[in-house]
What does this fold into?
Amino acid sequence: MQRLIPTLRRDQVAEGLISVINTLQICAKEISYRLHQGELAGVLGSTLDENIQGETQKKLDVLSNQLLKDILLENKFVRAVASEEEEGIVDGFADGKYLIAFDPLDGSSNIDINSMVGTIFSVLPAPTNERSGADMFLQPGHQQLMAGYVLYGPSTMLVFTTGKGLRVFTLDTTVGEFLLTDENLEIPTDTCEFAINMSNYRHWQPEMRSYIDDLLAGETGPRCKNFNMRWIAAMVADVHRVLCRGGLFTYPWDNRKPGKPYKLRLMYEGNPMAYLVEQAGGKAHSGEQRIMDIEPNDIHQRIGVILGSANEVDTCLSYLQGSQSKPSNV
Ligand code: F6P
It folds into this structure.
């Protein structure tokens, strides 16, 4: 089986990007090791702090963030990093070519129940103009040079793209190496599976409720087929399932918190996942536009996310845009 770096050389990926992914996989192995040690490593549970998003920080959130930050900032190709756990950006090398946005431990409420979590990353070019500070990161997702995630599950997997399809690597713990186990995943165009946090039903727009009602109505409803539902509550794990066997994943607009209608973040959740999904032939939309075309206005900006099997994303959007002629057997 092929190892990570030779695969990238074969794909003629730029040396700087190879160096960045190499650094990321070193961090991934460290985080994976601590997670698999679980309670034995004394890293489960929460800190007394909240992150910039107002969420309780888990000890492993803090540890993963520190690891990624420290190790990435030693890489001479890294101009700056932006993290879910940091209010502002952190500068690296002044002549570094790349900006890295990351969510160090996505789905961290799963840590304490020994369930799946992940690390998400997005690599953008460092601007050559006079932009500085956080403004450097405010580029639409279609400018990403590389994006991916590490899924810490029964096995640890590294899934990423440099714009030439997806590469899936599995950590062989016997030799401590990521080995290529799948390439060019393709998301089936149609699906009978969806992922949404149903407990928020009452907070959604009527159009989203109506879309979900029709999925739930199954073969006796307008969709004329039964749908299954899955919700792991870690975007990495839910998107991984969609990449492997199709499906629709959404965290839509809702009215729970006044002025804060979205949960997921653009720069280190929406954009990297959108890049992967599109590379696998799927679609990723905010409800208003293609995610990767959004011009960001803040490194912690939140957006709606609807992604997965292309035809199902289109059907969902037809409800949201009020244009659906009730599907009969989509
Ligand atoms: O980043 C936030 C996150 O943990 C995602 O990974 C996941 O999809 C979602 O929140 C889970 O949300 P909820 O708590 O509503 O199930």
Observations:
- The longest strand covers residues 98-106.
- The mean pLDDT is 93.
